[in-house]
């Protein structure tokens, strides 16, 4: 179905399952919803609402603007479209940052926040170098794979699959998991990615805002994520009502590598 934002941009959205609503915010920036597995595993617990962020995936291609405030407004358009007074939010990676930004802007419209595999509220330079080192190390387990990744252009499907394969702890199945992420392939919005990542480096006042957020928050991490999980420590300290679940054998997409542990954690938060 189509959700129309307040500036007329059309956003792809979908709802399935039953129960109180849970709205999902996908990662990126510049990617699309890859939460089909999550919707299936949670469909007996909640009505799962999925959507593609503006200019991405199945949503209308547009010229932005590529700002967190604009994406927060788009998320609110999704909420209004489905007639939700309050909603639980689950965000993954960049989507975790977006879900947190929405909760800070509109806490009265959020019942629970599930923050999955995000990168916290500290400076990007505290975790980015380690992530890049870990990415190259994972890809370098196969020197030909690393060389191929380096020669392909940004935004290329094969390059994305190779890079995403580093996100999984199960190295034997990593390429298969990454290939599923890219099927179907909608193309990466690199302009959106660059703009929002640049904005994400400038977030003054975020710690104080999180200290004042009176909402239950569940932080879910895969312990084997190549982004240092210590990046999230400052967010956990700031939030007054935070719980944290670390799944020991999972990487950046914990529902793929530990579906049972992930479902149990989210079900507990929704209850």
Q: What is the gist of this entry?
A:
Belongs to the peptidase S33 family. By secondary structure, the protein is an alpha/beta fold.
Radius of gyration: 17 Å
Counted by DSSP, the helix tally is 12
Cα shape = globular
Estimate the strand proportion: 15-25%
Strand order of the largest sheet: 1-2-4-3-5-6-7-8
Which range best describes the helical content: under 10%, 10-25%, 25-40%, 40-55%, 55-70% or over 70%? 40-55%
Most strands sheet: 8 strands, mixed
Low-confidence stretches: none
CATH architect. name: 3-Layer(aba) Sandwich
Which structural category do the helix and sheet elements fall into? alpha/beta
- CATH C-level label: Alpha Beta
- CATH homologous superfamily assignment: Alpha/Beta hydrolase fold, catalytic domain
Oligomer: single chain
GO molecular function: hydrolase activity
Protein name: Alpha/beta hydrolase
Keywords: Hydrolase
Domain AB hydrolase-1: 21-258
């Amino acid at each position: 179905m189509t959700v129309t934002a307040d500036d007329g941009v059309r956003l792809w959205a979908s709802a399935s399952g039953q129960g109180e609503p849970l709205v999902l915010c996908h990662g990126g920036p510049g990617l699309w919803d890859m939460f089909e597995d999550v919707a299936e595993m949670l469909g007996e617990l909640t009505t799962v609402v999925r959507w593609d962020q503006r200019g991405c995936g199945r949503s209308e291609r547009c010229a932005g603007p590529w700002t967190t405030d604009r994406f927060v407004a788009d998320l609110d358009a999704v909420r209004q479209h489905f007639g939700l007074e309050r909603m639980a939010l689950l965000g993954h990676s960049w989507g975790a940052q977006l879900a947190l930004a929405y909760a800070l802007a509109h806490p009265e419209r959020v019942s629970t926040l599930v923050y999955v595999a995000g990168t916290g509220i500290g400076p990007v330079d505290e975790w980015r170098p380690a992530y890049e080192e870990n990415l190259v190390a994972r890809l370098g387990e196969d020197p030909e794979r690393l060389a191929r990744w380096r020669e392909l252009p940004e935004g290329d499907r094969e390059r994305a699959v190779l890079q995403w394969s580093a996100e999984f702890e199960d190295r034997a199945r990593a390429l298969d998991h990454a290939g599923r992420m890219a099927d179907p392939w909608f193309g990466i919005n690199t302009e959106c990615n660059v703009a929002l990542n640049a904005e994400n480096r400038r977030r003054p006042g975020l710690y104080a805002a999180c200290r004042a957020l009176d909402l239950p928050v569940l932080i879910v991490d895969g312990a084997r994520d190549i982004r240092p999980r210590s990046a999230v420590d400052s967010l956990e300290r700031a939030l007054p009502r935070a719980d944290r679940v670390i799944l020991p054998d999972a990487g950046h997409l914990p529902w793929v590598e530990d579906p049972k542990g992930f479902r149990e954690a989210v079900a507990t938060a929704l209850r």
